[in-house]
Please model this.
Amino acid sequence: MPEPVIELDAIGREFPADPPVRALSEVCLRVERSDYLAVVGPSGSGKSTLLNVLGLLDTPTSGSYRLDGVETTTLGDGARTRLRGSRIGFVFQSFHLLAHRSVVENVMLAELYGGQPRRGRRERALAALDRVGLGHRVGFRPDRLSGGERQRAAIARALLGEPSLLLCDEPTGNLDSRNTDAVLDLFDELRGQGLTIVVITHETEVSGRAARRARIVDGLLVEE
Amino acid sequence: MDVRDLTNEAMAGMLARPVRSALTTLGTVLGITTLVITLGVAATAGNQIVGRFDELTATAVTIEVPQDDEPLVAWDSLADVTRLRGVSSAAALAESKEGANQIVRSNDLIDPARVTGQTLNVVAASPGLPEAARGRMVQGRFFDSGHLARRDKVVVLGQQAARMLGITRLDRAPAVFIGEHAYTVIGVLGDLRRERDLGTAVIVPPTIGQRFGLRHVTRVLVNTALGAAELIARQAPAALSPGNQDMLQVIAQASPTRARDGVQSDVNALFLILGLVSLLVGAVGIANVTLVTVMERTAEIGLRRALGAARRHIAAQFLLESTLIGLTGGVIGTSLGVVAVVGVSAAKEWTPVLDVRLAVAAPVAGALVGLLAGLYPALRAARMEPVDALR
Model:
């Protein structure tokens, strides 16, 4: 049996304060390959902290997190950064596209730090853009795209480098319903191609499309 | 991370806000321009002044002998100067008030229709004068030690003096009358490059100069090898007049290198400080703007960290951006400075002198300013936690 993509075991995250704030407590989670998981919860419930831990942007204070079978809690800053760059594709609510670069240049950014060869980078970026249905917008500046197109460009960037995990933070938070549908259709399609997707959201429309749902309240994660 | 990618990102970051980047370079541009103009104009001006130190003045030493009852310098002590290493020629001269106003005629006839007598300066000189005064014998010859030993009544005329007296040829051994006595003209001395006033003088051997009050040496002309003037200026008085060397006045040009150094250090000091202050202000400007840029681009930094950028990648990108801004300022400043130096030279009709090392070093200095100015902002950018940067 292959290793699960995500294996959280009794993860806790405390923030130093008086008294200490427990953002996550005893979180256990297992996400298999080509799973599609939605994490829902009200604001302040620990959603963002969970996302940061899953995305290796933050280290938990207790417990163990194995990504593709690699124990991450003991890794140093550099090793975690490399692992993050190679295994995780991020999709943010506010897209985080560089305004002064064309769509294809924004997508190419994803390969900048991973040590992939420069040769063929543009072709790979164009292929990723084709995959999200944005092949006709490659030379555009992000500010000339619609919200849905921007998010698809950001997803194309996340897909470059074949990550094990697509980690989405409120991916439809800035989109209208039509664009939301388009992005969710894209997620279904990508999952059908075998990609593992974790979406953090507070929108029921988004979580309703996912195969699994987990709710987080006061730092406790409960699968529904 | 590939260096080309890093450069690409830094260039894109710089060009994303072209107006801001251009304004940021201004301080560096001003500083580098000032430095290049200062150094360039100083070198150019220094070269012009050095250009005037030609071989003649750089090798000429004149020793003035104050008059006393006892001779301070004997006529035959000239040999002791000629003996010195580095002396190429030397001659002694005697001038006196009495000798300066002698009526000289070229014949004994008194013609009331024209002025036959000329008031000319009669000087005594040692036989080495034509060489020491850097002249040549236009006609005839100069007197030698033989004439001195025989106490011959011969004179040599300066070129203008000969013209005034109407003496054009020497083949009939013309004579001039100084006072009551006749003297044979044996040569005409012309094309003088030192002591040009000898052109209107009547030059007599020291042995007969005493009649005109020309007893003691009043001046010694020395020519030296190139570069030996300073040394000879120190040694000659002792050789001429042992024991009395402090009473002799030596006139020699300061050496060219010292003159150039003096000029440069005078011009440079103030403007160099000005340029360095401008550079400092430029550096502060770059640091300030880069810091603002880092704060503005927090989200971008967060994104890059999420995409796998290590802290050193972030630091390198911002450092390279500020270095490129400094380099751009340096290149523009150097160009403006070079143009200004050429312009100043053209206006003053000088030959512009530009050190190639300066043209290379100035942009590098600009880049260095940018690098130093970017250190702190880059450190701030690298220290950002991705979680905070993405929030």
Q: What stands out?
A: The first strand of chain B starts at residue 60 and ends at 64.
